Amino acid sequence: MATTKNRTISADPASWSPETQLVHGGTLRSGFGETSEALFLTQGFVYASAEQAEARFKNEDPGFQYSRFGNPTVAMFEERIRLLEGAEVARATATGMAAVTAGLLSFLKAGDHIVAARAMFGSCRYIVETLCPRFGIAMTLIDGRDIENWKAAVRPNTKAFFFETPANPTLDLVDIAAVSALAKEHGITTVVDNVFATPMLQRPLAHGADVVVYSATKHIDGQGRCLGGAVLCTEKFLADYLQDFIRQTGPSLSPFNAWVMLKGLETLPIRVKAQSANAAFLADGLAALKGVTRVIYCGRPDHPQATIVKKQMTGGGQMIAFEVEGGKEAAFRLQNTLKIIKISNNLGDAKSIITHPATTTHYRIGPEARAELGITDGMLRLSVGLENERDLLADLEAAITTARA
To answer: Which residues pair with 319 in a beta bridge?
Structure first.
């Protein structure tokens, strides 16, 4: 029999369980007392007087000025994800890549140096490898799995460590606590892309990271509807760097997309739990199939970094990477045979989605970089959805059989 004996509910949302925070956290209500969060589709805001307008722009009077700077619906989304992450502040962005760009370029400058784990999304590599050097920011790419590589890469002008964990698409891990501790020894800011794990399975700030970035387009929306991103950090980082960067460069999240993201957050815990259970089932099923030469899943004991998974993640997640015999030809044949699982370069959707990284998400980094990362022509990335797990496995079994023929 369930009991709530000795359980006290505080009025402070920070003390609530994540599931409760994601339904109620950050909610603002207008005078109409609406149940669902209000959608404020407005560019600007009216001031009661010229004096109030001046005070708003001098930050002497709290309130909104312009939706590029802040908006009530966007503010609700920011507060809700802040509570979930346990961050001091959050700022929403138009896309995940806008979050990555703002999280890095808001504080880096010419003459600085960034160290990044080479296993990452292709667009993130572009920011580090191409965009940063254009602005005089030196960069070093390393195998982020080994802490010794991070130590060896540090220079007197190193200002940022950047990595994804688990990484896209290889599911390589970086020890967040170890790298963050090293960064603190040298006065380096650690920026972590946490999109694959989601805040339900991993909270980088709790392991010492300074800044966390998300593509809210993925699991936070969770139903393939719209784009969005978020940067979570300290109040000091926001005041010193991020707020002015977002205000002046304008990578702002639209109020409508923020409203959609709020609805997505309400169901994030149950979706991640169900998708992770499906992924664990499929990973084991794939590992037993002829024609599958390798399965990489954070929830399996044969993951090369299973010890780190246990250290910093609370579940295996929804993402699987696997390789099939026959290279690109077999991988394409497999994808084209699937009936339920859809071909798309997105992830984190309620629908199961598959993509071939070598010809999509990581095509532009080139064959040498792909080989270095272990992205083979036979590798496929599977984002597991909410369908029946046995239907999904049957779909994969039939497609793999056809691919081998």
So the answer is: 383
